[in-house]
Amino acid sequence: MDNRNGSEDKPVQRSKSFSFKTQKEVCSSCDKAVYPMERLVANNLIFHSTCFCCKHCNTKLSLGTYAALSGEFYCKPHYQQLFKSKGNYDEGFGRKQHKELWTAKEGEDMTKTA
């Protein structure tokens, strides 16, 4: 019997640093597993490239064609149409304008100094 490599006596040892147990990434839009070939990251959120769409018109977006505001993603034309035309991004979402907060703060400062 030729026993040059001794494979019968010693079990095969695998590297402990390599593991098949990897944490699956999940799409922020559809909550399904995202594989490396279809993975897209925008604003630290992971998407399938097919799930990364404009909130307003559902057009497929890419990293060069999107604009984000308050965690929502839009194509650039709709972003400008919905928010930039008003001149105030907060007003587009129904929030108080920042200038109202400033005038309230200035009024408080005047009562403190008087």
TrEMBL record:
<dbReference type="GO" id="GO:0046872">
    <property type="term" value="F:metal ion binding"/>
</dbReference>
<dbReference type="Pfam" id="PF00412">
    <property type="entry name" value="LIM"/>
</dbReference>
<keyword id="KW-0862">Zinc</keyword>
<dbReference type="InterPro" id="IPR044115">
    <property type="entry name" value="LIM_LIMD2"/>
</dbReference>
<keyword id="KW-0440">LIM domain</keyword>
<dbReference type="InterPro" id="IPR001781">
    <property type="entry name" value="Znf_LIM"/>
</dbReference>
<keyword id="KW-0479">Metal-binding</keyword>
<feature type="domain" description="LIM zinc-binding">
    <location>
        <begin position="25"/>
        <end position="85"/>
    </location>
</feature>
<protein>
    <recommendedName>
        <fullName>LIM zinc-binding domain-containing protein</fullName>
    </recommendedName>
</protein>
